[in-house]
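INPUT
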Amino acid sequence: MPDPVSRQGLAQMNRSLLVNPYVLIAPGFILAALIILWPLASITNIAVHDVNRFGVLRDYVGFENFQVIFADPEFLGALRRTAIWVFGIVAGSIIVSIPVAMILNADFYGRGLARVIIMLPWAISLTMTAIVWAWAMNGESGMLNSGLRAIGVLDRNIQWLAQASTAFPMQILIGILVTIPFTITIFLGGLSSVPDDLYEAARLEGANGWQVFREITLPLLKPFVNIAVVMNTIYVFNSFPIIWVTTQGGPAKSTDILVTYLYKLGFQYGRLDDASALSILMFVLLLAFTLLYVRLAMREEKA
Amino acid sequence: MSLSRKAKRSIWSWVALSPLIVLVLFPFAVMILTALKPPSEVLRQTWIPSEFHWRNFITMWGATNFGKALWNSVYVSTLSTIIALIAAIPAAYAMSRYRFRGKGAFQQFLLVSQMLSPIVLVIGLFRLVVWLGLVDSTNSVVIVYAAFGIAFSVWMLQSYFATIPRDLEEAAWIEGATPWQALIRVFLPLALPAMVVTALFTFINAWNEFVIALTMLRTQDSYTLPIQIFSLVAGRYTVEWHHVMAATFVATIPVAIIFAWLQRYLVRGLALGAVK
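OUTPUT
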């Protein structure tokens, strides 16, 4: 039978476990740190060494791997396409999402259904979306060609995925479609915070629709646009399945972006050292963007 | 007779949204119509099948090794969600209830790990998994998903926990309850909906993940659904598209329905976490 003192001690310990924040965050921190910091340290270590095909570390080479990456024309092409990819999808999704969010924010018959339809792409895994689109864009039997021919837009089949000039824009289009739901969600949050009487007052003052949009809606949406830009940029920069599933960066590496180039370096070409150097470069880019996001979020908090 | 203002606006709204709606529904039409085509019609450029060939869904099951991949996906998603939540719930509780030194740093750590997609770390993660001896084991994917799910879960949960008034627990303490009793009897029931929503999102993220599974899982026995279905398409000379589309449909629709139902909660969580 336990004596009262140790029982009290036990209760004390139980209590302190519950009210000690460090104990509470420890499991989450340890697991997340193991999976994030260990690989990060490992990549950093590989990035400054020479590594053979089997992943065995050899000589310390300093920044040589980084120089190899910067001199690689494949890297420069992928870097350029990543800029187009990110800019195209982020800008495209925001330009479409602002008017659509405004429509969905007003009351109309069937609004609930319209919201569900427009949110659908978010619910499906990118891999599955990309597989379906790859089949739809099939040159001989794809339903995109037959659909566009039926409505008279095309008079012959296009091999959508066989050349970069059609494949890459289509990949960006798919990227825009799957990014729109999240972007609209952020904007709907912003629009719902606008009090209705503000619009009423503007109407009474005789402002037209465009003036209301420019003078009231847009300024109020601005912080939400900033958040959408930063979060989408990070997300799209990391997006891998659309390109990997539809073209694997082909034909002739003409649709590679940084993430697919990184994957090929690491797991197809067996250039682990260069791949690690590239990972570090991408990590630094992402970190810069994340810090920007924190800045923005904090500025909102102060405002 | 003139239309009411709302009716006019409804017509105008649907017309304005129609191009986007067509683009959104197009892949679903492709998926469903192909899944229902008789095999002989799949490569023909017709939209509507001559008959709805429901048997595709039965033959798909064996032809695509669907059952094993489904089980792997369920196993990986469920286990990683449970681990992520067990780690995230106390952390989120601490974040929403206490001020402590290092809280800001922990928050930033979570933010950075949420922003870092696994793809950037994939080389290091692969080496970690090799070191743990877990290559080609579904457990390797479980660990990585759980760890990446923690940041998201803590983020979502803490914004909900913060809305549960502290007074309720303190009132229970005054009534003579121990902190543990207050936690279990007062706090947990109120926090349960938030936990369920967070768990479902973590589950869906794991269900849909691609890069990590593609890297760690090497044989068909360990493939999750996205990798299994991708393997039926990638680098194949002939693809049985009716089976692939039927498999895609079955793998996608249940999760999509849960997501469509939950999506408004995500909006609330994100809005609370990111903006407020």
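end of record. DSSP finds 13 helices and two strands in chain A.
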